[in-house]
Amino acid sequence: MFKNRTLCEGSKSQTGCSEVAYLGVVQPESENKTNIDWTVTVTAQVNHKNIKFKIDSGADHTVLPANVFQNVSQNAKFEPPDKILCGPDRNSLKTLEKFKTNIEYKGKNCTEEIYISAANPKTKFPELFKGLGVVKGCYSIKLKPGAIPFAITSPRRVPIPLLKQTKAELKRMVEENVITPVLKPTEWCAPVVIVPKSDGNVRICADLIELNENVMRELHPLPKAEYSLNLLTGAKIFSKLAANSGFWQIPLDKKSSYLTTFITPFGRFRFQRLPFGISSAPEHFQRRMSQMLEGIPGTICHMDDILIWGSTQEEHDQRLTEVCKRLKNSGMTLNAKKCIFSQTSIKFLGHIIDGQGIHPDPDKIAAIENYQPPTNKKELKQLLGMANYLARFVPNYSDILFPLTSMLSNKVTFVWEAPQEAAFQKLKKILSSDPVLMIFDPGKETTVTTDASSYGLGATIFQKQADGRRSVPMHLGL
């Protein structure tokens, strides 16, 4: 338990914060005072339950984590939080509700207003958010029988403006034990591709195309978004975790490491961790993550993104804690900047998910709304590629877009006339109406309606709700 130093008085904005609340940080009354233990805790009774409190005599408010609150919530009268509590980084603390209760300590009683905070794994599992982890167990690259080694002896040229950043990135990767210099002859040696990043740094990509031709893949199935999204029955509270450079947390055995040798203007290096360019890397990483989280309900893992959900805050927090324990025991670490905790709405796999169902990502809708009418087949394919991702939200998708899809044939000359423009505008109108799909519930009565024509096949899945309404988990169009 901790108390908050300062409060953003009357603030209703999650971003507008005029003062900073130092959660669990106690400041001395005088600079002259020394040798004071600021970690002192006391045990008081809340609703006749013993709770350990961290003391801050200058704090304005008391906060209980949701998992502790569950033990003292009997007969509590809840109210929505009326103020925003902020942390040292000026980010708001996720508060769920507040209640007034009696607190007893050493025979004295008082009535205190307590805020309930959502679970924060950063506090409970700080080691999960430190540095680049190392997962237990090395990966061994298996080569096909008769594999012929490939090696180049001179590096590709790096643009002069990128030389400094390239050298710095190589140094960083060496310091993090991702790569190490190679000083002896090797049978395999690949070139590199230097990719500029938006922040001014570069990404170093080993071009392992020749090695990949000889790699035996695990062929572990990768999850499909449309299947995973239909597993979220009853989900109300969500958290999303992101591994910190996930592939780089899986060590390679030494023999495999030499297979990944690459050459740069600054010498040769080999990967000590699983590189992004190996063809078997995605399926191996997915298998490791799936095994790591196996048996935990309310979790979906797509590569290095993990979604945790629950129908209640308590259920969500229990699952989140178990996931964090598994990750900690495995040696995995997370990217704190990309992790999101205890939300009622969350973006995952290109969709917005909340208690109402599944919504299309507004950014993807905006991309279509702002797309200029195509002037050739290449631009048309780009448009249809964006539209296909949102097809599940569009009833009669095949019929609506037939004036566009029919022009993909090599036998048809590209034109953009009234039928094409009408189809384009109808698509934008449907998507801009904020369509929402219910999450599929295998326990509910389900009906599938289909329709076919000479140029398309369509279907809609309906599910009967408790009040008799029919909801739609998905539209299909071919």
Automatic annotation (TrEMBL):
What Gene3D superfamilies does the database record attribute to this sequence? 3.30.70.270, HIV Type 1 Reverse Transcriptase, subunit A, domain 1 (3.10.10.10)
| The keyword Transferase appears for this protein | yes
Question: Record's SUPFAM superfamilies?
Answer: Acid proteases, DNA/RNA polymerases
List the Gene Ontology MF annotations in alphabetical order: endonuclease activity; nucleotidyltransferase activity
Extract the Pfam families matched here: RT_RNaseH_2, RVT_1
Q: Which residues form a coiled coil?
A: none
Q: What's an example Gene Ontology biological process for this entry?
A: DNA biosynthetic process
**Reverse transcriptase domain segment(s):** 176-353
Source taxon at top rank = Eukaryota
Keywords of the record, alphabetical order, are: Endonuclease, Hydrolase, Multifunctional enzyme, Nuclease, Nucleotidyltransferase, Transferase
Q: Which CDD domains match?
A: RT_LTR
Instruction: Give the protein name, as stated in the record.
Output: Transposon Ty3-I Gag-Pol polyprotein
User: What lineage, starting at the top, does this entry show?
Assistant: Eukaryota, Metazoa, Ecdysozoa, Arthropoda, Chelicerata
Gene that produces this protein: TY3B-I_1356
